[in-house]
């Protein structure tokens, strides 16, 4: 009975050292964050584990690196601030992605403009082959034009790797809505991809490169699915 | 069942979120329907494109430092906010004490004899010569 009443996140009994932090689970790290002695180490470890995926999610939603870094950093600060109130009702990744998503959606509402797409910087890192760059640009254009509600569901699934249940928890939606939104999001993605491709002419990315199938194929089938809904 | 009814399930099937019986029916259909196979491949292509779009993304070197700085700043501001309610009463108390001190000082200064004034130089007369600067033994030896 007492066990059932105990909060799920208890401060660690002993402060975790560097090695223990590296091998600790997310839940253990969140517990460490509640303890003043190990809070700093616990938060740093969570930051190092999730900064890349949080940034990738924000980047896909916002379409440029600078905004994405700002949003991801803001999300981590919010996570830190809300840590004492967290009761372990979801996994850390689900909670973090929900905060990243909400931060990005707020920014989209404030700043979204179609002109921003034309000056999108390329991702930092090694040089990419031209077809990958073209595909990446087209993907960002498509995502940028999608309704934010569909975009968020699609990215939480594909980029964040969340299950339908986790997406439902993260966005406060019924699981059936998540299912139908994902289906609609994929249809919308394909339609937009086709439109951009038709508009881009010669600059369209190559089909079938590295086993990647162009999402706009079998367009008539997309329309038929859409009519059915 | 027609292709249209199966296509509704493709997205959930791709995500591994289709219940067992419906998944089995769809798999059987996919084995014989080239059109739905193409649809499925197209949906997989969307996932591939999205994942590829962020593959080359690199986190900037000062990402962690900026977050930790922001977190530190937040802590300081919270502490300041907590302390702020005490500032006003303390300032008011200090002002009251200063005023009281001034009044008490003024009261006692009226009752004390006036200090003896030092002689002043006559108006239009000469000012007393400035005193020579003190010399320190051994300082100006050559």
Number of helices of chain B: 4
Extract low-pLDDT stretches of chain B: 73-80
Structural class of the helix and strand makeup of chain A? mainly alpha
* Basic shape of chain B: rod-shaped
| Quaternary structure of the protein | heterodimer
How many strand segments of chain A? 0
Distance between the termini of chain A: 49 Å
Count of distinct strands of chain B: 0
Beta-strand percent range of chain A: under 5%
Helix amount of chain B:
55-70%
Helix content of chain A: 55-70%
General description of the model:
The complex is a heterodimer of chains A (229) and B (142). Chain A contains eleven helices and no strands. Chain A has 229 residues and is an all-alpha fold. Chain A folds into two domains: 19-113, RNA polymerase sigma factor, region 2, helix turn helix motif (Rna Polymerase Sigma Factor, Chain: A, Orthogonal Bundle), CATH 1.10.1740; 128-229, Arc Repressor Mutant, subunit A. In chain A, 42% of the residues are buried. With 142 residues, chain B is mainly α. Chain B folds into two domains: 3-53; 59-111. Chain B is built from four helices and no strands. Chain B has helices spanning 3-14, 20-32, 34-53, 63-111. Chain B is rod-shaped and about 120 Å long. Chain B starts with a helix and ends in a 31-residue tail after the last helix.
In short:
The complex is a heterodimer of chains A (229) and B (142). With 229 residues, chain A is mostly helical.
Question: How is the topology of this model organized?
Answer:
The complex is a heterodimer of chains A (229) and B (142).
Chain A: H1 2-5, H2 18-23, H3 26-34, H4 39-62, H5 65-82, H6 92-111, H7 130-145, H8 148-158, H9 164-171, H10 175-200, H11 219-228
Helix pairs in contact in A: 3-4, 4-5, 4-6, 5-6, 6-9, 7-10, 8-10, 9-10, 10-11
Chain B: H1 3-14, H2 20-32, H3 34-53, H4 63-111
């Amino acid at each position: 009975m007492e066990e059932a009443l105990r909060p799920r996140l208890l401060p660690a009994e002993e402060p975790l050292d560097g090695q223990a932090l590296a091998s600790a689970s997310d839940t253990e790290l969140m517990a460490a964050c509640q303890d003043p002695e190990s809070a700093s180490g616990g938060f740093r470890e969570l930051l190092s584990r999730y900064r890349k995926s949080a940034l990738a999610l924000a980047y896909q939603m916002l379409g440029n690196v600078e905004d994405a870094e700002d949003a991801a950093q803001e999300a981590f600060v919010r996570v830190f601030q809300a840590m004492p109130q967290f009761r372990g009702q979801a996994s850390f990744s689900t909670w973090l992605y929900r905060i990243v998503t909400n931060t990005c959606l707020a920014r989209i509402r404030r700043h979204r403009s179609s002109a921003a797409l034309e000056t999108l910087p390329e991702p930092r890192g090694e040089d990419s082959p031209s077809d990958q760059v073209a595909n990446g640009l087209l993907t960002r254009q498509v995502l940028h034009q999608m309704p934010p509600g569909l975009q968020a569901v699609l990215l939480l699934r594909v980029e964040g790797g969340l299950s339908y249940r986790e997406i439902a928890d993260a966005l406060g939606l019924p699981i059936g809505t998540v299912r139908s939104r994902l289906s609609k999001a994929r249809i919308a993605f394909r339609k937009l991809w086709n439109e951009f491709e038709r508009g881009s002419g010669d600059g369209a990315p190559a089909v079938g490169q590295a086993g990647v199938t162009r999402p706009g194929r079998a367009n008539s089938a997309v329309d038929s699915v859409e009519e059915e809904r | 069942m027609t292709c249209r009814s199966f296509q509704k399930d493709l997205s959930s099937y791709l995500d591994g979120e289709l219940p067992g019986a419906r998944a089995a029916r769809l798999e059987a259909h996919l084995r014989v329907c080239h059109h739905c196979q193409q649809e499925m491949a197209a949906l997989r292509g969307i996932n591939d494109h999205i994942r590829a779009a962020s593959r080359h993304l690199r986190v900037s070197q000062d990402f962690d430092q900026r977050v930790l700085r922001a977190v530190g700043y937040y802590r300081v501001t919270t502490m300041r906010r907590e302390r702020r309610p005490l500032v006003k009463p303390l300032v008011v108390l200090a002002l009251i004490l200063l005023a009281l001190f001034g009044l008490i000082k003024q009261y006692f200064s009226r009752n004390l004899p006036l200090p003896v004034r030092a002689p002043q130089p006559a108006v239009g007369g000469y000012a007393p010569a400035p005193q020579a600067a003190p010399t320190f033994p051994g300082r100006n030896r050559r």
